Amino acid sequence: MKVLRLGALVWIALLLTLLGVHVLLPQRSGPIALTEVFEPYLVVTGLIASAFAFDAEPRIARPLVAILLVVAIGRYGPTFISVPSPELGAPLQVMAWNLEAGPDAGQRALAGVLKSDAGLIGLEELQPESAAALEADGTVAARLPYRALEPNDSVLGIGLLSKYPIVEHQYFAEPPLLRAVVDPELGDPFAVFVVHPLPARFVTIAGLTVALNTTKRDADIAHIRSLIEADRAAGRPVIVLGDINTTEREPAYAQLTAGMHDAHLEAGIGPGLTWRPPGLRFLPFGLLRIDYVFASPPFAVTSTFVDCGLRSDHCRLEATIYLSTPL
Predict the structure, then answer these.
(1) Residue 31, preceding bond cis, omega within 30 degrees?
(2) Could you tell me the pLDDT band of residue 8, with boundaries at 50, 70 and 90?
(3) Domain edges within the chain
(4) Which residues contact 192 (CB under 8 A, 6 or more apart)?
(5) How far apart are CA 286 and CA 275, in angstroms?
(6) HEC sequence for 11-67
(7) Rounded to the nearest 5 degrees, what angle is found at the Cα of 49, between the Cα atoms of 279 and 70?
(8) Distance (Å, rounded) from C-alpha 137 to C-alpha 106?
(9) Regarding predicted confidence, which is higher, 53 or 32?
(10) What separation, in Å, do the N-terminal and C-terminal C-alpha atoms of the chain show?
């Protein structure tokens, strides 16, 4: 039992060192990058270990546990609790959802879209069956008459449904990306990006995952950011909807979101977790936050909502956005 207590103390010290590396020297690829993704769960093990560490060396354990608690609150507190911006004009409700390619895709797509009141809906992993179901439904057509749908038999399909006219759009399969310009009629046009950079590659040795290789994913995210910058440089506000396959603890997230609002971080309550492995899709909650709504100024975000009740491995993420000019 003494060995267990000392081991718990050592683990807390190692965990604090690791968290320091995450904050000060975040890594894009390698073993440290893998721990960045699952950091919250490592912190939970540290908090559990605290109960054993106190019995080992209280004088050492108390300050270490106190530091761990402070770091955990600092790292995750802003995600759980936020202060939304004031309502500045007419609201625009948006939704980002990865449908999950596979059986019954059309039924799932229709159920999720009909369940939402959003005026802009970005869809990832849009398959032909899903696109056909959405195109054929009269309720969807009446509420969201404008659409830019680029289905694909694999996970590369992507689409946008809109209450407002889509005056132009471009689709790229590598990475899956749809850029559209939406005209709200009573305000200035803005750009909407529906994006789905594919996941980083897990590196395994003897069947054990030991590292993360993000080279391709991060290059795709850099490309997406360059397109966003072009619209921002032209003075056009931007909304980004998508499955980014990146947690907020990774360097690529900071690169993509610089100067933009993360809707859930700024206006959501709770962890905002949006994904769980396909084998655990029955869970009524997510395990990682990799689906996002981002908005550039002068957009402001006032609320978000996560719904994990449908049969995708991703949860639907909705956000209410305001612009200084009426929509």
Answers:
(1) no
(2) confident
(3) 2-77, 91-322
(4) 120, 122, 160, 162, 179, 180, 181, 182, 238, 239, 240, 241
(5) 5
(6) HHHHHHHHHHHHHHCCCCCEHHHHHHHCHHHHHHHHHHHHHHHHHHCHHHHHHHHHH
(7) 95
(8) 11
(9) 32
(10) 64
Amino acid at 138: G
Closest CA to 190 of 57, 44, 323, 302: 323
Under a CB-based contact definition with an 8 Å cutoff, are residues 301 and 266 in contact? yes
- Residues in contact with 213: Cβ distance below 8 Å, sequence separation at least 6, in sequence order: 29, 200, 201, 202, 203
Strand 120-124 and strand 91-98: the pairing is parallel
d(CA 218, CA 93): 29
Taking the C-alpha atoms of residue 82 and residue 268, their distance in angstroms, rounded to an integer, is 6
CATH 3.60.10.10 corresponds to the domain 91-322: yes
For the whole model, what pTM was predicted? 0.93
What is the separation of C-alpha 180 from the centre of its chain, rounded to a whole number of angstroms? 20
Tokens describing residue 226: 């360059």
Residue 326 has pLDDT above 70, yes or no: no
Q: Which two tokens stand for residue 109?
A: 């797509």
Helix, strand, coil in percent for the chain, rounding step 5: 40, 25, 35
Q: Compute the distance between CA of residue 325 and CA of residue 327 in angstroms, rounded to an integer.
A: 7
- How confident is the model over 280-320, as pLDDT tens digits? 988 999 999 999 999 999 998 989 999 998 889 999 999 99
Query: Strands 238-243 and 190-195, how do they pair?
Result: parallel
Contact 273, 286 (CB under 8 A): yes
Look up tokens 């830019």; give the residue: 148
Q: At what angle do helices 2-24 and 39-56 cross, to 10 degrees?
A: 140
At residue 187's C-alpha, the angle toward residues 185 and 190, to 5°, is 95
